[in-house]
Amino acid sequence: MIFENMGFYFREALLSFRRSTLMSIAAILSITTILLIVGFFLLISVNLNLFLENLESQLEIIVYLEDNISQAELSTLTNNLNSITGIKEVKFVSKEEAYQRLSKDLGELKDILSAIEKNPLPASFEIQIKDPKTIEQIANQVTKFIKVEEVEYGREIAERLLNFTYIFRRAGMLILALLVFSSILIISNIIKITVYARRNEIEIMSLVGATSWFVKSPFIIEGFLQGFISSVLSTIILYNFYFFAINKVHQAIPFLPLVVDKVDLLPIGIAIVLLGSLVGVLGSMFSVGKYLNV
Amino acid sequence: MIRMFHVDKNYPNKIQALRDINIHIKKGEFVFLVGATGAGKSTFLKLIYRGIVPTKGQVIVDGINIARLKPGYIPYLRRNIGIVFQDFKLLYDRMVCENISFGLKAVGATNFEIRQQVKKVLNLVGLENKRKIKPHLLSGGEQQKLCIARAIANEPLILLTDEPTGNLDPYTSWEIMKLLFHINIRGTTIIMASHDKLMVDKAKKRVVRLERGRIIEDTQRGIY
Ligand SMILES: Nc1ncnc2c1ncn2[C@@H]1O[C@H](COP(=O)(O)OP(=O)(O)OP(=O)(O)O)[C@@H](O)[C@H]1O
Ligand SMILES: [Mg+2]
Q1: Is B25 helix (H, G, I), strand (E, B) or coil?
Q2: CA–CA distances in Å: residue A259 to residues A166, A263, A265
Q3: pLDDT in tens, A123-175
Q4: Exposure check for chain A: N or C terminus, fewer CB within 10 A?
Q5: What 3-state DSSP class applies to B105?
Q6: Distance CA A199, CA A287 (A)
Q7: B2-80+156-219 falls under which CATH superfamily?
Q8: Which stretches are annotated as coiled coil (chain B) (predicted)?
Q9: Which of B128, B152, B154, B127 lies closest to B142 in space, CA to CA?
């Protein structure tokens, strides 16, 4: 029955578009606007996330070694460090490298190093970790290894940074949840208005003996089309706006980390289209149900 | 065809619209339902097509207890019942013929059947030359006729008409009455709620009188 009448349902849905063109256009524009706001916030939040990850990845543990470490001890230590779980990368900086770095950093002032006979700088390991939250625990673990002189990880800065990113992420999630929730409410209300305008039709259909699916189907198709068209429209606008905007931003602030990969943005587009279509379908289904006299 | 046993209907605002209604209407009968405004006539009709369910008692329509009917089966009950509403309930953004075909499509008629039936019922009520216009251009009596045409289009067993001659001149009213008699003679059970003394007296059919929700009189060949 449902599939038998598919053609009829589609024709009815399109007819209703034609009968109330203004209403449909108004609905589509309103839904598009809501989804633009949601999408805009999603874009901001993925970029914010990238920025926070960038900040966090700058946290590292530096392990200074005792000068009298032997070659064998050094390779055991390297192995031990590498076997710690949660470590992304371990980089060895020899005494010579440290010296060179320093003299490079000093630039013009490097002559002052010649006042010192012996290289005073210790060899070290620079450890990057996967999850910044584990930094303290890993640092403590490393302290216990032999021939480790000192472990440094900027405890205070790390803590503050982690606190900051935590609050930022939580706030972002909260705002996003509120935004999605209210957009669902607003979109389903817009759909409800278009259904309300045709409540007589729904009542009469059910009084002459149409099954509830027969009554609902054209509305569901119409709701789907309204949601789908709006979400595709807003995705197109959003993408064009976004790539235009990040171009400008990159010209002004070249080092700012921004999501530029189109593939990385795909989930946002999919989320918006899903949100729009799903709310369109469910919104019309429930609204029609209200006016069905059964 | 229709039986009610000790039916009460209370609306949510505590109004007792019907009280202890007992009635038996046989197949093919023509029944007038009379009574003052607010007596419960429309409520009585709504019970039959299950627009509402009784607060107490049983309503049996064509062997079906409407209070126990599952929502999924309601459409099938209604396909046996044609309704002419007190407030018309026409779709004013569709043409006359579409107002009829729309209901037929809803009950699963084929396009061929729809064309046949639309033509047939419009001929019967005398609106065939107005089939391509919108209902708001029709006169009051013509809109009544359109409602009747729609109600009988799928050849129901029962026809419920709520004041089908309200606000019409006696001549047009009698025309509509004759149309209803014609439908009745072909076997359709008709219940007609009416204030129209002239028509009720002229018709000499069974009259059921309601007063404040109770049946106070039920006479064969009665008068208003
Ligand atoms: N949906 C409703 N909710 C609450 N009360 C209602 C509802 N429908 C009807 N009533 C009340 O029930 C009583 C009976 O109403 P009903 O419409 O059956 O009267 P009626 O005999 O058809 O009157 P009329 O001749 O004016 O059409 C009235 O007092 C009315 O106010
Ligand atoms: Mg009434």
Answers
A1: strand
A2: 20, 10, 8
A3: 999 998 888 888 888 888 888 888 888 888 877 888 888 888 889 889 999 99
A4: N
A5: helix
A6: 9
A7: P-loop containing nucleotide triphosphate hydrolases (3.40.50.300)
A8: none
A9: B127
Backbone angles phi and psi of A135, in degrees to 5: -60, -40
Best mutation target, A8, A22, A201, A207, to test chain B (most B CBs within 10 A): A207
Distance between B107 CA and the closest CA of chain A, angstroms: 5
Contacts of A208 in chain B (CB under 8 A): 78-79, 83, 103, 106-107, 150, 154
Query: Structural domain boundaries of chain A?
Result: 6-55+162-289, 60-152
- Kindly report which listed range (A22-36, A147-161, B200-214) carries the lowest average pLDDT score: A147-161
Phi, psi (5° rounding) for residue A84? -70, 130
Pairing of β A87-93 and β A124-129:
antiparallel
A57 CB-near residues (< 8 Å, 6+ apart):
A128, A132
Total residues belonging to chain A: 294
Query: What does the alpha-carbon distance between residue A98 and residue A101 come to, in Å, rounded to a whole number?
Result: 5
**Beta bridge partner(s), residue A214:** none
pLDDT band at B22 (very low <50, low <70, confident <90, very high): very high
Of B188, B203, B192, B146, which Cα lies nearest the Cα of B166?
B192
Interface of B with A in 146-185 (CB under 8 A): 150, 154
Alpha-carbon gap, residue B58 to B65, rounded angstroms: 7
| A212 contacts chain B (CB < 8 A) | yes
Token pair in block for residue A36: 């633009």
Q: Are A62 and A126 in contact (CB under 8 A)?
A: yes
Distances A113 to A94, A120, B220 between C-alpha atoms, Å: 17, 10, 126
Q: Tokens 């710690």 correspond to what residue? A: A84
Whether pLDDT at A294 is above 80: no
- Give the pLDDT confidence of A9-20 residue by residue, as tens digits: 888 888 888 888
3-state DSSP assignment of residue B210: strand
